[in-house]
Amino acid sequence: MNREQILAMGPGIELDSLIAEQVMGWKVDGSTVNKKGYIGYMVEFQPSRDMAAAILVLEKFDSYQCTKAQNVGVAKDRMYRVIVKANKHVARAETLPLAASRAVLIATLDPRGGDAE
User: Which H or E run contains 81?
Assistant: First the structure.
C-alpha cells in the first residue's frame, strides 16, 4: 500500500482494520480484534469514524499536530489536517478521525517515512 492508496480510502472497516494491525499491533481475524486478552468487535474500534478512537491511535506516536480550517458560514469547506511525526506524514479530510487515520498509516509506511510498495 502506498500514500496515494491510503489517501483515497474512506472511513470504514477496511481502514479501521489496517490501523488495528499496523498501528495498534492487534491481530484482526474476521470481525474481531485480538490482543493479549482483549477481544472486541471491530464495530467498537472505529478510529476512522470515532473521535475517541482516533485520539487513542494518535497517542501511539511521540508527536502529532491537528489543524482545523473553515470558511465562515460554509460548513462543507471545513477541512482537518493531521501531521504525525514529521511534515511528510500529513493527511487532510472532512473529519478529524478520517484525517488522523490516514496520517497514522502514512507514518507507518516504512521507518524512513517513504512509500512501501
Answer: strand 79-84
